[in-house]
Amino acid sequence: GQQKPLRIDILLGMATAYVIQRDLSKARKILIQALEVYPILEQSNELMKARIQNIMAALHLLDNDPEIAIKVAKEALESLKKVPTNVGNQERADVYRTLGRSYWRMGNQQQALDAFKAEADHAQSLLSRDEKRIGIALHHLADLYQSTRQADRAIANYRRALTHKNAQHDPLSYFMTQAALHCILLDEDRKSV
Q: Are 67 and 49 in contact (CB under 8 A)?
């Protein structure tokens, strides 16, 4: 009984590792295995199903197929509708991040903006506040605002992102946001405060 959810967690971890290593064919095979195990769980675990679907969506995005990524991410959101609203915000934030990136890649900036706003909202709704996740979500918003030439909003969101990131715990992420802010300030001929 308990082995099957544990097996899915292990498969998800393996798939994520393969995605990070850019071995997309192995990641896809592992996710298909996870989807095969899911239906035989004693209880329907929509949260687990949504995790699998979101990783699959991210895989499609990495595979340069944003249309399929959007379709699968929307399926993950449908699965998450069956999960109580007081749980699953981390997964919702992850799915909205995948949706935002997919829409952005397709040039649908308004839909990307809506998705990144939802990512930030869900990241801020986590019971255990994850400052890094909030900072990353705000950085996504800022990047999109910058690409749509909304400099004031971009600057504000980069600055907000920096208040949630920790230079000591995650120097690369902090530096990337700081560099993005510096570049837009230079472009706008403003001084950083």
A: no
Give CA–CA dist 18/102, Å, rounded. 20
pLDDT tens for residues 109-122?
Answer: 999 999 999 999 99
Q: Taken in order 28, 33, 34, 35, is the CA torsion positive or negative?
A: positive
3-state secondary structure the chain: CCHHHHHHHHHHHHHHHHHHCCCHHHHHHHHHHHHHHHHHCCCCCHHHHHHHHHHHHHHHHHCCCHHHHHHHHHHHHHHHCCCCCCCCHHHHHHHHHHHHHHHHHHCCHHHHHHHHHHHHHHHHCCCCCCHHHHHHHHHHHHHHHHHCCCHHHHHHHHHHHHHHCCCCCCHHHHHHHHHHHHHHHHHCCCCCC
Q: pLDDT band for position 38 (50/70/90)? A: low
Q: Return mean pLDDT, the chain.
A: 86
Six token digits for residue 60: 């499609």
Tens digit of each residue's pLDDT (9 = 90 or more) over 145-185: 999 999 999 999 999 999 999 999 889 999 999 999 999 99
Asked whether 176 and 167 are in contact (CB, 8 A), the reply is no
Q: What is the CA radius of gyration of the chain?
A: 18
